[in-house]
Amino acid sequence: METITAMWGPHHQGAIELRSYYLKGKRTQELISILVTSALLTLNGVVLLLKFDWSQLGSILCACFIGILVADFLSGLVHWAADTWGSVTLPIVGKAFIRPFREHHIDPTSITRHDFIETNGDNFFLCTIPLGYMTYILIWGDYKENFEIVWFFYLLAVFVSMTNQIHKWSHTYFGLPWFVRVLQDLHIILPRRHHRIHHVAPHETYFCITTGWLNFPLEKISFWSGLEYIIEKLTGAKPRADDFAWANKNT
User: Fold this and answer.
1) Which of these, 54, 199, 33, lies nearest to 128 by C-alpha position?
2) Start and end of every Lipid desaturase domain (predicted)?
């Protein structure tokens, strides 16, 4: 009987191998990160609301908006870097952080089968230390003259923490909560149709996955392709070489 080779999806040989690299130690790190960061987000949010200054409402809303924009840009920067450069064989970061990006391009729906811990552990981990410092500032520091800056960093942390969950929702077409569909339709978070543009091979555009607001302007100025051109000229490294290698595992 002839064996049918999967071109993409969970039966792709590369996807099977990459899934095997998700180990118990990695999951433990993700669980701890989510518990600690969730506690810090809750504590800092409560303190900020208790000390809210209505006279600064306009500047706080502006700071929050900028925080969300920066989160969207950072999501694009990390996504672009992990998609385009590096290798799963790199020590520490390869299997821990680059691996999910390789798996996602081979099996785009894999993220919908990940639970909350696997989906969000890395993003929560990135916010743990900054939120810990924010807790110190809110409890023991002098921040009253920079209240808007604290709100900026808080919204930045919230949206960075939730970026991969938002990304997961953009791949989920059944059973989404109504409020998620509303947020997607209003383009407050990354819409499903918007994110499809990135998943056209060779996955070289529309990297911002928090709100997606910055994708169009960054594409118009050739931001990512310009960076790739400079890096390739300086180093000789080929963009997405490792990504292509994993995609061709079946051939």
Assistant:
1) 33
2) 68-242
- The predicted pLDDT at position 1 comes to 33
Record the pTM.
0.91
User: How confident is the model over 23-57, as pLDDT tens digits?
Assistant: 899 999 999 999 999 999 999 999 999 988 888 89
Q: Name which of 86, 101, 107 is nearest 16 in CA terms.
A: 107
Look up residue 182 and give its two tokens.
């509303």
Structure tokens belonging to residue 231: 């890096």
The separation between the first and the last C-alpha atoms of the chain, rounded to the nearest angstrom, is: 19
pLDDT score of 43: 97
Angle at which helices 116-140 and 147-170 cross, to 10°: 180
Q: Are 14 and 102 in contact (CB under 8 A)?
A: yes
CA gap 251, 249 in Å, rounded: 6
pLDDT cut 90: percent of the chain above it = 69
